[in-house]
Specification:
The structure holds two protein chains of two kinds. Chain A is mostly helical. Chain A contains seven helices and no strands. Chain B starts with a helix and ends in a 5-residue tail after the last helix. The chains are: A mainly alpha, B alpha+beta. Chain A binds chain B through residues 12, 16-18, 20, 91-92, 94-95, 97-99, 101-102, 107-112, and chain B through 1-5, 10-11, 14, 16-17, 20-21, 23-25, 27-28, 49-50, 52-53.
């Protein structure tokens, strides 16, 4: 939740229109919240008894820590979705994984 | 991967799945596929910001994709030496990012002098927002790109921005034109005004074509007079004058021009 909240100011325009993650002004993100959220995620992962929510939080942390969409560690995000697919498989998780694969390997591989 | 999900019949009712597929198709240059998926996403999406976003993306797809959707594509207008192309959202979005991107879209050379005169960023942004707001209403009634017609051994060059200030209102449309510095004094403006006026009067609702120019701009006034426009008084601004050409003058002049 901290990690999602960290992006709130950058997520919409002044008149309430959606701005995609790609196009958001990352300097508007709240980096104190990101640091706090990331520390919590790392602690949870270190406990070795984590569930699907921790994995989702870890994915949010990777996004939040990247300086830009292209600088995002997409390989790590694909890996985390692989873990999530084993822990809590669903078509939506599979879709998100496909989008991450497209970012890592190109749009053609996300599609087919 | 996404196509495999759809093949299993999953997520067929999830709008984000369709817009994710559309986005990948768009990035692969598969515009027609992208259009179909954006349309499906739009049918399913319930939230207003999400719907608006999909509509933008749809409107920005290239001309072949628009055609595949059955959208009306405004035909080019030709004169003796020029071709006029109605600006689409795709053109304007590209141009705002980088004027150089217009070249490949139009198949024309974009020179240093672009954009000319009054066709500045503020104008582009206002055209962009109106095209996004209501594409069918504004298509063809805002800016047009004017380039030289293809001739043996020469590449078409973008020479002017011209067009209308909006769709007909009370039977009138207002035209405007701006030629790049290096293409002035060649008589292009006269051809452009002739083409815009002809196109305007093809629409039955148009009874008057209006143009405003600066009182000190003698060459622009000559352009209008040569096209049968008559000075009717002061313009909106203190230094501008207003010219008009009426549909009825077309008949008395035996067709005008």
């Amino acid at each position: 939740m901290l990690l999602h909240e960290s992006r709130r100011a950058a997520r919409t325009t002044a008149d309430g229109q959606v701005i995609l993650l790609d196009d958001q002004n990352r300097t508007l993100w709240n980096h104190a919240l990101i640091a706090e959220g990331s520390a919590l995620v790392q602690r949870a992962l270190a406990s070795r008894r984590f569930g699907p929510y921790t994995i989702q939080a870890a994915i949010a942390a990777v996004h939040a820590e990247a300086a830009s969409a292209t600088a995002t560690d997409w390989a790590q995000i694909v890996g985390l979705y692989d873990v999530l697919m084993r822990a809590d498989p669903s078509p939506v998780v599979e879709l998100n994984r496909a989008v991450a694969v497209a970012m890592r390997d190109g749009p053609g591989l996300g599609l087919h | 991967l996404i196509d495999a999900l759809f093949a299993r019949g999953e997520l067929a009712h999830y709008p984000l799945a369709h817009s994710a597929r559309a986005d990948l198709c768009r990035r692969l240059g598969m515009s027609a596929d992208a259009a179909v998926s954006y349309r499906k996403a739009l049918e399913l999406a319930r939230q207003e910001p999400e719907r608006r976003f999909i509509q933008w993306r749809l409107a920005e797809l290239s001309e072949p994709a628009q055609r595949a959707l059955g959208a009306r594509v405004i035909p080019n207008v030709r004169t003796q030496r020029l071709v006029l192309v109605a600006a689409t959202l795709e053109h304007i979005v590209a141009e705002l990012k980088d004027p150089g991107r217009l070249g490949p879209l139009l198949g024309a050379r974009v020179t240093e002098g672009w954009p000319p005169g009054e066709y500045d960023r503020a104008a582009m942004m206002s055209f962009r927002s109106r095209l996004r707001e209501d594409p069918p209403r504004y298509a063809g009634w805002l800016s047009w790109y004017v380039m030289t017609a293809e001739a043996a051994g020469t590449q078409p060059t973008l020479v002017a921005a011209a067009g209308f200030m909006g769709p007909p209102e009370n039977g009138a449309v207002e035209i405007g034109y701006s030629v790049i510095p290096e293409a002035r004094s060649l008589g292009y403006a006269t051809e452009i005004v002739e083409a815009l006026t002809r196109r305007a009067f093809e629409v039955e609702a148009v009874h008057r074509v209006v143009a405003e120019t600066d009182a000190s701009n003698a060459s622009s006034q000559r352009v209008l007079e040569r096209n049968g426009f008559v000075r009717v008084g002061a313009g909106r601004e203190t230094t501008s004058v207003r010219y008009e050409k009426t549909r009825s003058s077309l008949k008395t002049n035996g067709g005008g021009s």
